[in-house]
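Hi,

Apologies if this is the wrong queue. I'm a grad student, and the batch job for Pr6Pr family membrane protein from Isobaculum melis produced an output file that my downstream script rejects. I'm not sure whether the problem is my script or the file. Here is the sequence I used:
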Amino acid sequence: MIDKTTKISLSYKIIFSILLITGILARAGLLGGKLQLQTFYSFTSISNIYILMLTFIAILSFFTDKELTSKGRLIGVVMILTTGIIYHFILLPEKIIENPHYQVFTYGNIIAHYFAPCAMLLDWLLFDGKGKIPRKEPLICVSIPIVYFSITSLYSYTSSLVTGKEANYVYFFMDFDQLGIDGVFKWCTFILLAFIALVYTIYFLDYSIGRIVESNKPTKLS
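Support response: The file is valid. Your script probably expects a header line. Output copied below for reference.
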């Protein structure tokens, strides 16, 4: 018998996954408009696809006897929150300066940069069991932006050597041609430190809530 909370959680995740799928497809131009497969290189798309996978796994866990929802959840929450924060406070102002007619309120933008972070955070707060995040997961989480930066920067640089064209970096703060090594280093150090702070804030909040919940459980009488 599935209890009411479980039914709500399952329904929430199904609706969440459907909206994530449509948002990812809209950003790639697969729901009309110009096809933009290069969007899949962005941290936004990667984080959205990752939390979609986590949500699918969580939905699957409702129909199995295995607990599948704890591992990787911290990574998903932090990645998608980082996506929303960087977009709103760093990328969006820059885009508006470059193009005053930049369309902020497109379906893909709203889903990927605003809905997904808020919905994933709410999913974690309301439905995830707390205090179950593996201790090594924060370190894995911190390595993700470093790996992403290294791979995308190397790809942009080597592709420019092959084609002879100017390197096309994913984000302006990764553009060595415009900012130089010092400029990119400052931007990426700032973002990485903020990312680390967010990782351990979520981790210790999860741990603290887990301890509180555990301490408030009724003691079993022997």
